């Protein structure tokens, strides 16, 4: 039921540094982060020196590390929010937790600080139940159970491979929504974790996630890059694309995806109205992307996340490649990513 | 966004009276129920006179009314929890709300009394979003919205036909769970409503529900009756069966099903250990029932709830009828129910 099941040495916390001064961020997270090994990946577009306070067990990776490991003859780009994926690549741990550098620990309904890492690990180490919905949410949560009518044969559940946390204060809306409702803040702390049912898709946000690197790592890829991608979440869809790949792959492999707790507190940043022009690009793409992922089926021969990504890349190229060069490029990156993942993993 | 959209005269509250003294129950609900028309259906097995306090606008139906309307040459049984279905049949309203007579209003996290009727009506009169999961739960809820990556083409949603509320204190567990964990009480108030995704099934509990009688009414049927069915919820599966029919029909007709708020406070009753022997019957049936409902598909020609029930009855008879006489009987009741629904509706 808790992170007691696993060793802290099996976890890497990966931080993509889009800001040079991480002092406040790291200090806010210190009670949690200081217990774990951290991988900090500096956005290669960031020139200023990183400021990181002492007291952490961490490795910092910069542009020169990326160039050394990945090489220059690559279509994979690690700039902006994509820099964190380099951390996923070089980690050797079983689990990865990743939180954006503009988020700090949230407080629950009782005013207590949320240990986001502990909650993510609980989510990943207790079963998921994708084949039948439990109306009392996560049946493995303390004080909860399966409700009347839930088939006993489905109660053992499946392994959870992806845990998607949420956000208080500034929610993860797109730029149009943010621009239309500039005052809107999320203050509703929903005290629940639930398994997203099999064959049901959702927009995974990269802001606050955790996953089994061992089982699902190769499926998280910075593949879809918008032409006008910027340094604000609402100017990106890389995590939404990656999340839909991951969900389809989890469904195929019989793995679970949970959403809900833990929350993080997301600080203000950027001007949604300025981003509006860029964001529509991503918004428009979703209209093609979602039906594709809803209908794509992977062959039975695909039995690992690597296999699945290669098959998914084929389908992306065939079915979406003609309609927008961004999709053709995404397919290319996916294939290259699997090669790179194997190479780095065996080195 | 609220019940302001609809007239109070469009709503019937249906109460199945399994206890003769409704005084405490009605008084607890008075601030809410006194604003609406009530249909009270007395369990035909109950001999004592009903005790109902004054101050309500209600119609009471008893065994003699059931015999008069339904006739005696019927396989439909209205005893026990099934009595409320007679109320669904004779109602002429657009919406029905039904709460068990051992439930009283719950309090939310701020200690305020929950208006369960208002919340159910909000659920039914705002769209449902079964085709893509919104990680911030009901996007139509005050202060919430669709998150980044949610396709704009799916944001208008579909009509919600069924709203399933939850329970604090005594949760709706089966007898084995209740017997194994006699001290377990549900104290987690999850402040959320969500659409159950299309093609995902859940065990609907009849304890606290609301539905569009107009769109879905004929699909709620007291069809599956256990041989040893008793007067305790955990001795029944009639609502679970009916709920699975309703969910499959909603998926087929493009209607939505929501779950979550409102909560009711469920009082103690019965001895789970004594019920254990009966309950295993229902528990075992679920192992056949769930795969059936997961795979059953309705023909395109079925365009109303009535059509769908008739088609579903055919499939039940064909695919389950041989394995247990209870299923064959359920199929028969479903066909008869549709005839009765049409007859009563046109009279």
Automatic annotation (TrEMBL), chains A, B:
GO terms for biological process, alphabetical: cell wall organization; plant-type cell wall organization or biogenesis; UDP-L-arabinose metabolic process
Molecular function GO labels: UDP-arabinopyranose mutase activity
Q: Write down the position(s) of the site called Required for activity.
A: 148, 155
Specify the glycosylation sites in chain numbering: 148
Q: Does the keyword Cell wall biogenesis/degradation apply?
A: yes
Chief location category: Golgi
Where does the UniProt annotation place the signal sequence? none
| Catalytic reaction annotation | UDP-beta-L-arabinofuranose = UDP-beta-L-arabinopyranose
EC number assigned by the record: 5.4.99.30
Sorted keywords for this record are: Cell wall biogenesis/degradation, Glycoprotein, Golgi apparatus
User: Pfam families attached here?
Assistant: RGP
Any one annotated GO CC term? cytosol
Intracellular or extracellular location(s): Golgi apparatus
Q: Which InterPro entries match?
A: RGP, RGP_fam
**What is the protein's known function?**
Probable UDP-L-arabinose mutase involved in the biosynthesis of cell wall non-cellulosic polysaccharides.
UniProt lists the family membership as follows: Belongs to the RGP family.
Name of this protein: UDP-arabinopyranose mutase
According to its UniProt entry, this protein's organism is Morella rubra (Chinese bayberry)
């Amino acid at each position: 039921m808790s992170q007691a099941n696993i060793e802290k040495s099996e976890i890497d916390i990966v931080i993509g540094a889009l800001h040079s001064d991480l002092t406040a961020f790291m200090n806010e997270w210190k009670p949690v982060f200081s217990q774990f090994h951290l991988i900090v990946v500096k956005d290669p577009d960031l020139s200023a020196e990183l400021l990181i306070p002492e007291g952490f067990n961490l490795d910092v990776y910069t542009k020169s590390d990326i160039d050394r490991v990945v090489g220059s003859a690559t279509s994979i780009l690690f700039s902006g929010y994509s820099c964190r994926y380099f951390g996923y690549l070089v980690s050797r741990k079983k689990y990865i937790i990743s939180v954006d550098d503009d988020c700090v620990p949230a407080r629950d309904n009782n005013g207590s600080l949320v240990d986001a890492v502990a909650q993510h690990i609980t989510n990943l180490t207790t079963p998921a139940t994708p084949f039948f919905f439990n109306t009392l949410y996560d049946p493995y949560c303390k004080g909860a159970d399966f409700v009347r009518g839930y088939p006993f044969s489905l109660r053992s559940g499946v392994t959870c491979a992806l845990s998607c946390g949420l956000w208080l204060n500034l929610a993860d809306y797109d730029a149009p929504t943010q621009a239309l409702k500039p005052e809107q803040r999320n203050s509703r702390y929903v005290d629940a974790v639930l398994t997203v049912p099999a064959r049901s898709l959702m927009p995974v946000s990269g802001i606050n996630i955790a996953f089994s690197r061992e089982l699902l790592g190769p499926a998280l890829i910075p593949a879809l890059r918008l032409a006008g991608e910027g340094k604000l979440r609402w100017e990106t869809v890389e995590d939404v694309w990656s999340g839909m790949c991951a969900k389809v792959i989890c469904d195929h492999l019989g793995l679970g995806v949970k959403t809900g707790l833990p929350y993080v507190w997301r600080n203000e940043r950027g001007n949604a109205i300025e981003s509006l022009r860029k964001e529509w690009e991503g918004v428009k793409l979703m209209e093609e992307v979602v039906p594709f992922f809803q209908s794509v089926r992977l062959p039975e021969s695909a039995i690992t996340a690597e296999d699945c990504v290669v098959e998914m890349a084929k389908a992306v190229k065939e079915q979406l490649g003609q309609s927008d060069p961004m999709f053709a490029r995404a397919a290319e990156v996916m294939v290259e990513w699997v090669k790179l993942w194997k190479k780095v993993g065996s080195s």
